[in-house]
């Protein structure tokens, strides 16, 4: 059974943009769309106070209206909606466990500041079992023209970025878009080289040819699986976050991998994903590495 594209909605402009993006992606992939809203009863005061039943009715009516608009826009799309009483993080993580992709909205502050991630978004991205896509408020179909690229970061060996590459190629195939696979590299301190690593670099003809060969090896199975997807191999010296952001202007979607690490204050994503999430102008997909 095809897992749904799930959109978390909360009535804000950002979540409406996320829902619209999720609906278009569900149509492209032939997947069902699931709409999820988490709510908690908030007792009010004064003449405008609403009882529990009134609040729940208002929430369900708002979600129902959003679903009706999606169905009118995408005739034939299978759409379901769940209004869940509970915390947003817990509800979204539970939804992510059954989703192919979870889509959330995020406020943006323009070219210099980028995305604004709330605590809910940060926790969900760090812990979700499926890819999470962050969509800016005001995001439209204008950036989804086929000529624009799906940019994906690749690092390490073929298995290290396999999940991110899979998501990027699947998305590009559904959109008939090219993939730009980006591998960044830096020169480590001389003492970090072992005799074995020095031999590998020497056999490859130097650091940059070695990195190009490593990227080609990682892409080989995905080129074979998606022969109709045009691929641009991009190897550049610099930090991964900086190199990815340097090509973000041509992207309709940026895809980065995620290896969440646990700290005393909860899960945290890596610096590359964090930097791209906060500064890329296009939607960003954060794909967990399946151990």
Automatic annotation (TrEMBL):
<feature type="domain" description="UspA">
    <location>
        <begin position="149"/>
        <end position="288"/>
    </location>
</feature>
<dbReference type="InterPro" id="IPR006016">
    <property type="entry name" value="UspA"/>
</dbReference>
<comment type="similarity">
    <text>Belongs to the universal stress protein A family.</text>
</comment>
<dbReference type="InterPro" id="IPR006015">
    <property type="entry name" value="Universal_stress_UspA"/>
</dbReference>
<dbReference type="Pfam" id="PF00582">
    <property type="entry name" value="Usp"/>
</dbReference>
<feature type="domain" description="UspA">
    <location>
        <begin position="1"/>
        <end position="136"/>
    </location>
</feature>
<dbReference type="InterPro" id="IPR014729">
    <property type="entry name" value="Rossmann-like_a/b/a_fold"/>
</dbReference>
<protein>
    <submittedName>
        <fullName>Universal stress protein</fullName>
    </submittedName>
</protein>
């Amino acid at each position: 059974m095809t897992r749904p594209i799930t959109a978390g909605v909360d009535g804000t402009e950002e979540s409406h943009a996320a829902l619209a993006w999720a609906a278009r992606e569900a149509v492209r992939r032939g997947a069902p769309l699931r709409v999820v809203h988490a709510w908690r009863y908030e007792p009010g005061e004064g003449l405008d106070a609403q009882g529990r039943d009134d609040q729940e009715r208002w929430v369900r009516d708002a979600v129902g209206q959003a679903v009706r608009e999606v169905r009118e826009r995408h005739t034939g799309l299978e759409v379901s909606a769940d209004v869940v009483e509970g915390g947003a993080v817990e509800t979204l993580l539970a939804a992510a466990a059954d989703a192919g992709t979870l889509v959330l909205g995020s406020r943006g502050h323009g070219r210099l500041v980028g995305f604004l991630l709330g605590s809910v978004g940060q926790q969900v991205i760090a812990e979700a079992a499926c890819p999470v896509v962050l969509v800016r408020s005001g995001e439209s179909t204008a950036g989804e023209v086929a000529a624009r690229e799906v940019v994906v970061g690749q690092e390490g060996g073929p298995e290290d970025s396999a999940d991110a590459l899979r998501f990027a190629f699947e998305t590009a195939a559904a959109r008939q878009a090219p993939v730009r696979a980006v591998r960044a590299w830096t020169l480590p301190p001389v003492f970090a080289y072992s005799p074995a690593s020095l031999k590998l670099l020497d056999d490859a003809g130097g650091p940059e040819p070695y990195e190009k060969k490593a990227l080609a090896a990682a892409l080989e199975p995905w080129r074979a699986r998606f022969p109709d997807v045009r691929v641009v191999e991009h190897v550049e010296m610099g930090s991964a976050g900086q190199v990815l952001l340097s090509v973000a202007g041509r992207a309709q979607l940026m895809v980065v991998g995620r290896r969440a690490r646990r700290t005393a204050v909860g899960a945290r994503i890596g610096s590359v994903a964090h930097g791209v999430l906060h500064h890329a102008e296009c939607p960003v997909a954060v794909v967990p590495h399946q151990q």
